[in-house]
Amino acid sequence: MELRKNYFADMRKDDLHEIGQPRPRSDSPGHVTGKTAFFADRNFPGMLHLKMVRSPHHHARIRSIDTSEAEKHPGVVKVLTARDVPHNVYTILILIQIGPEDETVLADGKVRWKGEAVVAVLAETERAAQEAAAKVKVDYEVLPAVFDMEEALKPGAPLVNEYHGQNYYLYDSGECRKVRFGDVEAGFAGADCVLEQSYQSSPIEHAPTETTGCVVAPEGNDRFTCYTNTQAMFFTLDNASIILQMPGNKLHFVGGTVGGGFGGKVDVIVEPIAILGAKLTGRPVSFIYSREEEMQISSPRAAEKVVIKDGVMKDGRIVARKVTGYTDAGAYSRHSPYGAQKGAGHYPGPYTIPNVWIDTYCVYTNRTPSSAMRGFGVTIGDFALEVQMDKLARLIGMDPLEFRFINAYRDGDMKAHRQPTEGAALIECMQEASRAANWPVAEKYMAMSSYAKGA
Amino acid sequence: MAIRRGRGVAAINYPTGMNLGGDPTQALVHSTPTGNFMVTLSSVDLGQGMKQIMAQICAETIGVPTDRVVVDTADTDTGPHCMGTFASRGTHRAGNAVIQAAREARQVMLEVAAEELEVNASDLETDGQGNILVKGAPQKSISIFDVALSAHFKRGRSISGRGMFLIPRSYPEKETGAMKPSTCYAHACTVAEVEVDDETGEVTVLTVKNIFEIGRALNPKMVEQQLVGGSWMGISHALYETTEPYYPNRDHGGTDFNQYLMPGPGDLAETEIIVLERPSADGPYGAKGPGEMCANPQIPAVANAVFDAVGVRIDTLPITPERILRALKAQAPN
């Protein structure tokens, strides 16, 4: 790695004592010698292990649940169903007033994705819990499922989630988050070329080294300590408090070094049910995802579809951009309404375009709920935007790097969401890329600056 | 049939912090009688090294070496509130809270030192080595250890500080979408060079040259580890990873690392990282959040390089050999 100090040197103080110094990490020796403690290193006498009975169907009504055989299985201490959960229907973003509550801790009457938690089994050993889980009998009536976002949005599609009432998240702005800037149709009408293209991604796993989990210990005084690898301590505590209808002062969350998050540990899935198990049994409880659960049960990055329509002039100026983004939330919201909205604030990318129209939809389908992941709401959008930029450049016969210089945002430029650009540095990154990759561009582009025009 | 070479470019920006703001983080700083400083948080270190960065920020602000600062975090009984470690917010939000807390603690420290040295606190400065000196008369000095002892046992002062950082929440306007998603943005430009085997559809990424603008490299070695790792993850997203290879079909999802494809060490490209620093107006020592954005530009850069190599557009991720071969077959003259 190289630091190029010649850029923006006038804006920095480079003579600090500790900042800017490549100090060795104080936790590295522990990590590389196996001394760092992780949540799962906690082991308590009498600790129980929790395993989930999961839906084998993508969409089904639950006619009945019979746990009698599982309860008789040697080593089983407690079997939990929906009626054991004090506030079973929840949604995590209720903490920032993004509702409605739309997901069950344990399925109640219905399952909406293959893998959904239905019954929790607590036993003396992992093996006993697993064997007992296999003895739980659930009678399902399979319902039609929908997996494709376009199908889900058609009239008459199977309704995925009754708490929403339609297969998309209803924002205060309607069926999508909208950004309107300038007159996009006039922009297309006046453009030399118009290009509309569609981009698609598939769900992606966070693949942390350490799978999601927690260990809960009763403190003997109505308080419970939850050792967890959540990425957000109080966010998880507060949601657990709502789900368990337990005052926050009864809950003590302890984290530590987490073995990789990448956004996969901001859902609140393992903690509430493990705390409930500890409360109802009076014993410590461990609930740790297997690798299979981590890959197919925990939320992935959403699949997205992005449709971009651009109007461009032969001199390289983009004069209009319309983006329609679809985020496949799966069966429940989790963080997806936030992610889709974040996309609306990100488009049309780091370019100054006078006419912009953005619609971003959060769509429900019968698949594993998606949620946050590194680059949430932006990563797939950037793939779409930057492939589109390449296509546009080739369409008008221009070098792809020079084409970006022409459209790059600079300080003071008004963005589509009506914030003036501050602190831009795209031009300088591209100038350095031109040098580093030996990708020459015209001298006028190398003379550009992100600083305000005329400043 | 041949191995074909191509290169592609992509340029991006990325917001720092929870979208639309409204995501507070607090910090507490206090000295112990050892002259060390404790930073207390409830933020989570995901392995990215947040504790180290908070220690350096606290040390710089108070004026002591980093090894005199201990970070105690991720405990809701002892640590003040933090919204969490996500959305490239850890360094920016918690770092600002630590600066505010450390400034308050530093002020008390200088006041105690001023009493001991019988000067005005405003006439004092720290040497960054653990001492407080009188400006212009450095022979007149006191160690921070002695100041801590004096504060605790003689002056009855608590060398401590409280810090809080909150960007007020922005609510998007319904019809126009007017909003303030973020206060600062990191930037990147990546050039990727690939080889594509037009017989097997296999892509080899030869080189990626990543230029990242991250506000301020608070610890360049740690910046490097995050940016290199992110660059690999971007290549992995472009060419390998998915839990549903035939999305929207639900079948064929991997359930372990044998089935879920990711690049191995032999698949990683020669990776070059160049960092620019345009300090952000509201970042701790100018820092922005580079944690997420560093994994984004490689994806379109690789996609564009594949097109440059073999002349087919794969607009669906991941760009698998199967998709490339199908596209080549579709464009072949009959």
UniProtKB/TrEMBL annotation, chain A:
Superkingdom field: Bacteria
Hydrolase as UniProt keyword: no
InterPro entries in the record: Ald_Oxase/Xan_DH_a/b, Ald_Oxase/Xan_DH_a/b_sf, Ald_Oxase/xanthine_DH-like, AldOxase/xan_DH_MoCoBD1, AldOxase/xan_DH_Mopterin-bd_sf
Region (Disordered): 14-34
Feature: compositional bias, Basic and acidic residues: 14-28
Residues of the Aldehyde oxidase/xanthine dehydrogenase a/b hammerhead domain: 33-144
Entry annotated with the keyword Oxidoreductase: yes
SUPFAM superfamilies: CO dehydrogenase molybdoprotein N-domain-like, Molybdenum cofactor-binding domain
Keywords: Molybdenum, Oxidoreductase
Molecular-function GO terms, alphabetical: iron ion binding; oxidoreductase activity
PANTHER family referenced in this protein's UniProt entry, alphabetically: ALDEHYDE OXIDASE 1-RELATED, XANTHINE DEHYDROGENASE
Record-given protein name: Aldehyde oxidase and xanthine dehydrogenase, a/b hammerhead domain
Source organism (scientific name): Mesorhizobium qingshengii
Record lineage: Bacteria, Pseudomonadati, Pseudomonadota, Alphaproteobacteria, Hyphomicrobiales
From TrEMBL, chain B:
Superkingdom: Bacteria
InterPro entries from the UniProt entry: AldOxase/xan_DH_MoCoBD2, AldOxase/xan_DH_Mopterin-bd_sf, N-heterocyclic_Hydroxylase
Residues annotated as domain Aldehyde oxidase/xanthine dehydrogenase second molybdopterin binding: 3-267
Secretion signal, residue range per the UniProt entry: none
A Gene Ontology molecular function term of the record: oxidoreductase activity
UniProt source species: Mesorhizobium qingshengii
Name of the protein this chain belongs to: Molybdopterin-binding domain of aldehyde dehydrogenase
A Pfam family matched in the record: MoCoBD_2
Taxon lineage: Bacteria, Pseudomonadati, Pseudomonadota, Alphaproteobacteria, Hyphomicrobiales
